[in-house]
Amino acid sequence: MARLADYFVLVGYELDKRGSRDGQGQILQRFPEKDWEDNPFPQGIELFCQPSGWQLFTERNPPSFFVAVLTDISSERHYCACFTFWEAVESAQSQSHSRNGEEEEEESSSLVQPAQLFAPKSLVLVSRLDHTEVFRNSLGLIYTIYVDGLSASLENVIGNLLTCTIPITGGAQRTISLGAGDRQVIQTPINDSLPVSSCSVAVLFRQLGITNVLCLFCAALTEHKILFLSSSYQRLTDACRALLALMFPLKYSFTYVPILPAQLLEVLSTPTPFIIGVSSIFHSETQELLDVVIADLDGGTVTIPECIHISLLPEPLLHQTREALSMILDPELEIADLAFPPSTVSAPSLKMQDKEIRAVFLRLFAQLLQGYRWCLHIIRIHPEPVIRFHKAAFLGQRGLVEDDFLTKVLEGMAFAGFVTERGAPYRAIDLFDELVAHEVKRMRAEEGNKQKILRHIKELAEQLYKNENPYPAVTMHKVQKPTEGCYLRLHQRPFPRLDEGTVQWIIDQATAKLQTAPPAVKAEKKCMVPSGPPIAAIMERNGSALANSARRLEVVRNCISYVFENKMLEAKKLLPAVLRAMKGRAARHCLTQELNLHVQQNRAVLDHQQFDFIVRVMNCCLQDCTAMDEHGIAAALLPLVTAFCRKLSPGITQFAYSCVQEHVVWTNIQFWEAMFYCDVQNHIRALYLESNEENHVDEEGPQEEKSALEIASEQRRLWPTMSREKQQELIQKEESTVFSQAIHYANRMSYLLLPLDTSKNRLLRSSGLGDVESVSNSFVTNSIAGSVAESYDTESGFEDAESSDVANYVVRFINRFVDKVCTESGVTNEHLKGLHIMIPDIVQMHIETLDAVHRESKRLPPIQKPKLLRPSLLVGEECVMEGLRVYLMPDGREEAAGGNIGGPPLLPAEGAIFLTTYRIVFKGTPTDPLVGEQVVVRSFPIASLTKEKKINVQAQADQFIQKEKKINVPAQVDQFIQEVLQLRSCTFQLLRIAFDEEVASESAEVFRKHLHKLRYPQHVRGTFAFTVGQSPKQAMQPKAKEKNPSLRTLSKNLMKNAKKTIGRQYVTRKKYTPPTWEQRSSQHFQEDDEDEISVSEEIDRSTLTPSTIIKPSDKMTMSHLVERACCRDYQRMGLGTLSNSLTRSKNEPFRISTVNRMYAVCRSYPGLLIVPQSIQDNTIQRISRCYRQNRFPVICWRNSRTKAVLLRSGGLHGKGVVGLFKSQNAPTAGQSQTDSTSLEQEKYLQAVINSMPHYADASGRNTLSGFTSAHMSSAALGPRARVVTLSTPKGASAKGRESPRGKWGSIRASGRMSNYVLNMEIGSRLAGKDLLSAQHNGAPSEASFLRQHRASLYIIGDKSQLKGVKPDPLQHWEVVPIEVFDVRQVKASFKKLMKACVPGSPSTDPSLAYLRTLEESEWLSQIHKILQISVLVVELLDTGSSVLVSLEDGWDITTQVVSLVQLLSDPYYRTMEGFRLLVEKEWLSFGHRFSHRGAQTLAGQSSGFAPVFLQFLDCVHQIHLQFPMEFEFTQYYLKFLSYHYVSNRFRTFLLDSDYERIELGLLYEEKGERKSQQVYKSIWDYIDRLNKKTPVFFNYMYAPEDGEVLRPYSNISNLKVWDYYTQEVLSEGPSYDWELVQGQPEHVEEVDRQDSSAPQTKRKIIWPCYDNRSRVEPDAISKLLEELHNLEAELGQVPERWKDTWDKVKASQRTEARQEASRMASSSLLMSSSLLPHRRSLGVYLQESSVGSTLNLSLDSDTSSTSTPSSGKQGGPKSTSNLYSQFQMSESENRSYEGTLYKKGAFMKPWKPRWFVLDKTKHQLRYYDNRMDTECKGVIDLAEVESITPGTPTMGAPKTVEEKAFFDLKTTKRVYNFCAQDVQLAQQWIDRIQSCLSDA
User: Fold this and answer.
1) By CB neighbour count within 10 A (0-12 exposed, 13-18 middle, 19+ buried), where does 465 fall?
2) Which region holds residue 839: left if phi is over 0, alpha if psi is between -120 and 50, else beta?
3) How many CB atoms lie within 10 A of CB 1383?
4) How far does Cα 662 stand from its chain's mean position?
5) Which is deepest, 801, 831, 1005, 1367, by most CB within 10 Å?
6) How far apart are CA 1701 and CA 1684, in angstroms?
7) 1804-1835 burial string, b = 16+ CB within 10 Å, else e?
């Protein structure tokens, strides 16, 4: 029983303080006067009676009532019911009351007398029970008695009120009367633990809505501050009460003030969470609170500040809760859309709705906390149960580790209270306990079924309602109410002073009566709390996963049993599978169980291999554990790591724990606590089980295991019945159990925290170990444990932990742990002190044993590492350093590491790195055992090394560990790594090697030094191409004196003489040498220096007077010069022969000049040059000084058709042509000299122009402006034609002048390209803007268009040089300034390209993705630029203008452009022989500085690598892709050159010019010399030899056209990234050293054959980065040739060369084709050669000999040689008819007539020539883009033709055609306008069509 009310208080306004600003209340009377012993009087009641402050009012307000809640110091809540009414105050002036209302009115109007004021007065009841209605009635009754002057005595009523006692719970009904003729019925709730909410929850939802309330609910649970605002006090109280009711079964334990008085507003800035209500008057004061969630009940809003993140319920619970709430609050929602809604929807009463909402939340908690009892640890049972909750296990088993909300709730105070209150195993249970134990299964089953959920909610609501209102039929209350409006009465006497004595006497009597009455003991129904189903049973698992995991578990079990049976090989095979399975939780649990089986008597001694194996599996198991260990893996392994061990030597044993310390879980104090509590619980359970078994030995029934909680509950039931001694004994036993566990754990922790090598200062990788409070998962907050931990912390803060040694650190860690758990589990203080003394000793002893173990483990024989595989070497290649054991680490390329493609990771691989004279080679095997048989080779030539850097070992290791999580790499790799080197090569290879620990760091240094020495030799002679075959140790051997002076000596002497002369000349004519272009600029830019030649080389700028007599030695030189490539090429083009240049026959326009045979004029040019016939040699010397590096213009190619020539030169100095164009009045030094040079230069250019045959008839101003877009588009075929090929239409131009033939692509330029457009700004003269931007390689325009206005010579120069150039109308040449990129940009771009194609490490940053980095490198933009310039030059040459390319120094971009122009214009250069000639002529003879650009020697090291030649090869590759049938060589040939031009294996690409090569004696070798050595010095000889052996360089699709000019697309969208940059072959290394790669495929087949019993499969798995695709999977023709070769070998014949076989096959194909053709009506067959359109890369038509069908093969032109034979006779008239002939034998009726007509396009489109075919059979007129086109572009059905009439020319019609050639064809749909080439043709067409129409 409890008192209904503890105190009655009367509070009034304190009149004495009236003057002060704030009024104050004072307690006028309180009853009883003395405090109750069990319940002291609460302080500050007067504040709460008027929460918004005590004030006087000018009018009477109606009485108000609300309940405030006060919380006392022992967190008991007191409910203060305040009933307030207003009384008139006597005014200070006249103490008398006013007589009546009127007078008062008058006086108030006078200034003297203030208005009458009213002061509040409150009647307050203070109670510990919350019966709002009873309080309202009782106080109302007192007020009524006072106001209406009832007869009852106030003292009696108050006395009765204070002495009334009611039962607290149990559902009793009690009627009370206060002795004023009233009657009230009080119902108490059945179960005290369920909160009473009447209808407050429902009201709260009505005020705020579902989402807002859920938000508040989550905020309250996750400990945020919540503030309610309302203008009604009672509503604030209700809202707060409702929020608490929703949180049941958790209890809110922070500040809870439903109504906060004005004076206490500063409480709102408290740092702790709270739920507070404040009157909305103070709304503005709450604005600056930054971390408070504010709920405005009147406005229905919830405001969450930005800085707060409220974690919401986990899905799907959030969604389900919302749905359930909307079903209850808005039942109409379900039927809102029904056509015939039910007439009535029964809405439940508010009270019922309230309970339904609470039922939803009760269900929610049952689902959130289901299975919580299985995670309780009971540590002590007697004297009081101590219970802990294992949070990590709960979250882990529920699978909610990541969930923010639940984690916060479990860490919160409310849950701590929940565990304390509900954890007890033996207590009374309520609705929640039953729900969570028995209904979880049902809730699972009903998920998603709304009806069933609703039914369940209603059932629960019923129970909740019943709990509050146990007796439905309540007898009516009978309480008098005051009369309406009584508070307005004027003559209201004040509330009387009550008689204390009377009240006190009533109270005393009642107390006396109570003391005599027997105590009413309510029997609490205690019982064992049901645990409910374990979590595992609730969490569903899907079947398929189970089956799958069952297989995995089988693998794990087998593997472990193999280990213990010592079948190590079997175990090794299974290991990768086991490591992969370890990702799954089931497999890890299975592993721990399996290992447990093999432990006998706490010990399992293993041999070394087994031990390593078990440790590795354990590490793998632990590496996925978080610090929380939510799946209990670390917990299960903890006993095992102290069980498995190996004997290191007699008396010294190493346990597994010393090898698994690297995991963060061991440093987490929460983990240790949970483990400790778990063990303690098991021991205590055992303690009671034993005692039970002693008692009941007889009942050996099959009883099931009792859980610890069940035992505890049993013990708690028996506790009161035990004797005192028995109780003491049990307490003693439990305490010593806990104590012994604490000692045990101190040992265990020292095992896992002390590293094997204690000398190292290895600190544990901890995450906030310092703050024990925050990381602990136990719930003692301000207990001793906390304070002890604090003291430890302060005494040795963790900051200095690093300075102190590991031992102290571990001691402190263990001490802290022991303090915490022992105080929580009630260990006595003496024991605790004893422990603190023991711990340092335990740690010290352990350190001593560890030292011994560490010493011995060092002596273990090292793990058997795989033996080093030696790489195969080339002839003459020798090892400089023997292999160093290394690991090849994965870099950013994912394929090899098993990345996105999948497949086992080939990297990391372990093996060795070898340094030879030629290459760096890694050879080894992957560490992943699944691919352990494979061999991995990565290598690159030393000469191609561009960057070497050391990588921080830690970074590498970390990355490795991350990798390890992705792919399973042995964790040991980590231990072996010392330093990591990253070597990058410009052959697009990257070696990332980590030296094994056995490699001394000195050897690694030696390796780097050697590498450096080999990479940058002092002189070119040091490169591999020279040293090959010599032993690398000694330097160059001194040569024996040569017997006869060979040519080499002669050439040397020759050079000496030349040098002398040069030197002398330089001295004499010093003053005339103009400062070079670079020297001027280099004063400003230091960076330019890298492109400078050292000044000593500048000597050759001076000139030599040529000697006219050729000495005998020179004659030899001459004969050799004639043999050079240049000369052969000049003769091929008919540019003159040496003989006639000596005899000077004048009929040739050009001659071969020998002016440079001594390399005196220009050292970087070849000895023989082509110059105009009319120019004397001495003029040349003078001219040469105008050009950079003396590289004056020379002719390098002539167009055989138009006779236009291509010239090349270096850029100009300040003098020269630019000088000609600049104003002449600026005085220059040596004016006359300058003028004469300029004139000579002009003369030179004029001579070039004169040499062109049509120069004479070129009339008018010569500009490019005629080459406009209009003409181009008239010939381009409109937007539909994507790829166009034009052959020569017969009468395309009126005069029938032959227009240039060639392939064209017209692509509309995108805006993007215009950035790269060659910037031509010299007015509209050069309509180059049109030429390049409007239509990138626009279509060819008729030659006649260009011929009228076109310069004879275009000089393409660098824009920056040509500033200030004025056009000169008298000249016949024109300067085209363009912007080009310099070498520095190429270098930078190449670096970025390498990083993109071969990234050093996998990029996590999406902005570094491959395509993005590729774009940023701008490599493709540069290629686009080169191709674009080249196509422009080709175009100009093809239209008959000569072009001089004069860019930079004339040896980088100039060379690229000039060689590409020749390649595109002249089919000869697209053969192997021609390409060789092209490279030898333009790149080698014309002095591209290979050594300097390739940084081949020490001198070039600073300038770095600039891949100018590679860029050229990439351009060729782009053209090859677009025209795969035009090249005799394959892509492989280009890659081969790309690789070897930097590899220094051959001498071909060494040195910077012919001059240097002659000087070294490289150019002319003795004839006999080559036979002796096997080594090939020239790459060309090597390619020739290889080409004879194998068709690897030959393109089977080669089917050239005569005189074909190629015009590739250069838009970036048409360019492809060369696969040379991205592909690699790990099985054999780069495939460009052919000897090294040979002889491997055979052994593969043998392997296949061995196992003959197994069924043979033809399938092969090809790994993209491992196998050489072209070898493993050769194309059809190579395969056939290879088989043929093998068959011949088997038959013992001498095998025929593949080329001969191939030629024979082609020849026979042709003859067959001819026979076929003669049999058929058509004149020729469609063959690949005639397949002009569509770039011929799209498909090849193969003629099958017997049937007349065409087979269209789509070819993959990307692979090196997946090609198909093109067969048949070349040439023949090209016509579409061939296609038809295949399908219909008699073609005459198919094509009645055909020819070219111009057709006017649709509205606003231009006229276009089309090839028209009139077809009688199909009765239609078809048209094609051109004659070769196989695809019909449109059809006019003759049935629709109405008439055919002569037409008139319209706008844009061809100009040259006569008027009568036009005719119109009118169909039902539209009118077609046609125009034939002349009148006869037009008439013919009209007649034909007419006849067709009449036939129809």
Assistant:
1) buried
2) alpha
3) 20
4) 28
5) 801
6) 9
7) eeebbbbbbbbbbeeebbbbbbbbbbbeebee
Residues 184 and 137: beta-carbon distance below 8 Å: yes
**Binning pLDDT at 50, 70 and 90, where does residue 955 land?**
low
1740 phi, psi to nearest 5 deg: -130, 135
Distances (CA, A) of 219 to 228, 252, 312, 1088, 1892: 13, 12, 8, 67, 89
Asked whether 983 and 993 are in contact (CB, 8 A), the reply is yes
Tell me what pLDDT residue 1681 has.
87
On whether the CB atoms of residues 1593 and 1472 are closer than 8 A, the answer is yes
Q: Note the Cα 269 to chain centre separation in Å.
A: 44
Confidence of residue 1365 (pLDDT cuts 50, 70, 90): low
Closest CA to 683 of 750, 733, 632: 733
The whole-angstrom separation of Cα 651 and Cα 1650 is 50
pTM for this entry: 0.53
Choice among 503-507, 550-554, 892-896, 1468-1472 with the minimum mean pLDDT: 892-896
Distance CA 232, CA 51 (A): 11
Q: What are phi and psi of 1853, to 5 degrees?
A: -70, 160
Distance between first and last Cα of the chain: 118
- Two structure tokens written together for 421: 């209150």
Structure letter (DSSP) for residue 1601: -
In angstroms, the CA 227 to CA 303 distance is 10
* pLDDT, mean over the chain: 74
Rounded to the nearest 10 degrees, how much is the dihedral formed by the CA atoms of 720, 724, 725, 730?
A: 40
Lowest mean pLDDT segment, chosen from 85-99, 1046-1060, 1806-1820: 1046-1060
Element (H, E) at 983: strand 980-985
Residue carrying the six token digits 């803007």: 1329
Please report which residue ranges of 923-1000 form alpha helices under DSSP H.
953-966, 973-976
Confidence band, pLDDT 50/70/90 cuts, at residue 1303: very low
In the numeric block, which tokens belong to residue 3? 């008192």
Rounded to 10°, the helix 154-163/132-148 angle is 170
Helix axes 1676-1691, 1698-1719, angle to 10 degrees: 120
Kindly tell me the number of DSSP H helices and DSSP E strands found in the chain. Answer: 63, 46
When pLDDT is averaged across residues 813-817 and rounded to a whole number, the result is 90
CA 1242 to CA 1247: how far, in whole Å?
8
**Tokens matching residue 211:** 């989402």
- Strands, E, within 1346-1434: which ranges? 1353-1358, 1373-1378
Summarised one tens digit per residue, pLDDT across range 1766-1804 is 333 344 444 444 444 444 433 344 677 888 888 887 766
Q: What is the pLDDT of residue 1138?
A: 59
Give the pLDDT score at 1386.
93
CA 1093 to chain centre: 45
- 253: number of Cβ within 10 Å: 15
In this structure, the dihedral spanned by the alpha carbons of residues 693, 698, 703 and 706, taken in order and rounded to 10 degrees, is -20
Chain centroid to CA 1635: 41
Tokens representing residue 1032 in the block: 């690398």
Fill in the amino acid letter for 1578. Answer: S
* Of residues 975, 1075, 381, 389, the one with CA closest to residue 730: 381
Q: What is the 3-state secondary structure (H, E, C) of 1207-1227?
A: EEECCECCCCHHHHHCCCCCC
Across 1339-1479, where does the E strand assignment appear?
A: 1353-1358, 1373-1378, 1442-1446
Q: What are phi and psi of 1865, to 5 degrees?
A: -120, 120
Task: Write phi, then psi, for 646 (nearest 5 degrees).
Answer: -140, 150
